[in-house]
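Message: I would value a second opinion on how I read folds in token form. Give me a protein, with the fold worked out from its sequence. Write it directly below this note and I will take it from there.
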Amino acid sequence: MSSLSRQWLLVTASGVLTTVMIGIPSQAQQTPQTGPALEFDSAICGGAGDLEVEFLLTDAIGDPVHPEYTYVLADVDVQIGPESDPWGDADLAGTLQPGTELPPPGEGSLSGTAMVPGDVGRVGLKAEVDRKFADGRGDERIVLQAETDLDECAPVVPEQAVEVPDRVWGPYGGKRTIPTVQSPSGGQTTHPSVVRVPGGWNGFEYWMAHTPYPSSNSAWEDPNIAASNDGVNWVVPTGLTNPIDDQPGLPGPYNSDTDLQMGPDDTMYVFWRVVIPDALQERIKYSTSTDGVNWSAPAEALRSSMRVSRPLSPSLLYEDGRWVMWAIDILGSPNRMVYYEGGSTPAKANWSPADAVSLGPMQRDKEPWHLNIFKDDTSYIGLLNDTAIGSTGRDGDLLFILGETPLSFENSHFSGIPRIKPTMHDHLYRATMFTDTEFGRPGYRVWYSARMALNPDVWNIQQTFLLGAAVNGAPP
């Protein structure tokens, strides 16, 4: 791997390095000996075959402090591949963002990371920096560039899936268009929960519950049902009218957090959470169907006062003739995972008090947020969505979790799916999965929801496949 480090804008094919300054006085047309420097820092090859590339914008080595001006990042663009032209929009995580002021000399730098395909061969970054004068003189625009040639990063493909949390990984997914009642019909949605019935159930092999969430508008966040025969192309079954339940949205009651399950007697159950702010109540409701089209009137599985507990993202299983449920209690921080045991029906009279569930140490400054759990033989397996402490889904990752009992799990300590997919998502959310094979290798079929933090937010559902492999420092 080669790099051009601490370099100015490359302006000729011969490799002459210089600085371009725009709008500066004639007496200042000389290339400065001091000022900000842009450098390539590192490229890390991940198990999914993507490269995490980092650039730094810092003061030039030995640059003195100049109290009469500051440097502010005006624009930044990424270029990948040998013939990418023109420069594309920046898709960078970190502090290297337009509008950010460069720290004074000796007090740190701005950093930005971009996820790029492992076979691009080359990556470059262009930064436009304004020198802003305290005395009101016109700003100076400085254009900087850093680039590097990249070694190829290929995915790690194991021979078999390994049910050890820190050995499970997968690339970010492909976007799936899920039909909703919005216009257009494939509107933004979240909280996917998928059930697969081998051989099909009422004409479809895959069934999904989800909640439309355009621009984070809770008025649309109601349980919807879709179906598919390949897990990729989804439709609303003929005769079905969505949503299953309709709430007005904030500041009134609103729905969220769907969970779809097959229960006894070939009956499908959809569960969801209802928040009633005026009454300071939260409820887990459910509806049933024997054909996927006609659904029963909503019934209550659980009711709680917001002063006592706030279980969100319920994940249920029907096992050994009874229902069980996990949820994340968000009353107080850090959030915690809880477990309930029910009866032969999910009726609220049948549920036990909540038991605490151990998840092991979380990622630094993170707490649980959403989850999905299924049973594989005797093990409980799932994906846990975390969040920055005190937030509602910020910087969410998806951690693979494994439990040999319903009350004790271990987690992967890192996201099994990259959080950043350029132009598509920068926060991961609730996911759903089950064991499957792809190209003859066993693993986990996953549909996950994700958010692109814009104004307003954009939500979407992606599909990917997780395999077992040693990544991100996992043991060999």
About this structure: Residues 1-33, 158-162, 470-476 have pLDDT under 50 and may be disordered. The radius of gyration is 26 Å. The CA atoms of residues 326 and 339 lie 4 Å apart.
